[in-house]
Write a structure and sequence with these properties.
Number of helices: 5
Distance between the termini: 64 Å
Order of helices and strands: HHHHH
Largest sheet: none
Number of strands: 0
Radius of gyration: 27 Å
Strand content: under 5%
CATH superfamily of the largest domain: IL-4 antagonist (De novo design) like domain
């Protein structure tokens, strides 16, 4: 009987040591490798800012009547927006950029500009 009690106490002690050691060492290790979660957030923010800048450029060119520049800026903005990730505002921004590209290619500069402007509005949201 005493051997079982001793074994149980030893097992509990070893488990406690394991828990303390694990709790001490784990915070030192990055959870997703090289700080991956934070890096991914930073990349998404950079892509969102670049998409927003390019969409604003598309609007500016559209107001000047430059359909080709609207298309090229909207296409570049779309590439960045698609790297941001999912979300209602990003998805709406992507849709608006696609519409801007479609209308810009058709020569509908005013409609393309309105879609690019709507993309700016959505991409500005968090």
């Amino acid at each position: 009987m005493s051997m079982t009690r001793y074994t149980t106490q030893l097992a509990v002690s070893l488990a406690a040591i394991f828990v303390v050691a694990t709790a001490t060492v784990l915070p030192l290790q990055p959870v997703f490798g090289e700080g991956g979660a934070r890096r991914d957030v930073m990349r998404a923010e950079q892509h969102q800012q670049e998409a927003l800048k390019l969409a604003k450029d598309a609007v500016a060119h559209g107001k000047q009547g430059h359909a080709e520049a609207v298309v090229s800026n909207a296409e570049a903005a779309l590439q960045h927006a698609q790297q941001v990730g999912k979300g209602p505002h990003v998805d709406a921004g992507v849709t608006e950029l696609k519409n801007a590209i479609e209308h810009g290619k058709a020569g509908h500069t005013d409609v393309a500009t309105k879609h690019a402007d709507a993309a700016v509005m959505h991409l500005s949201e968090k």
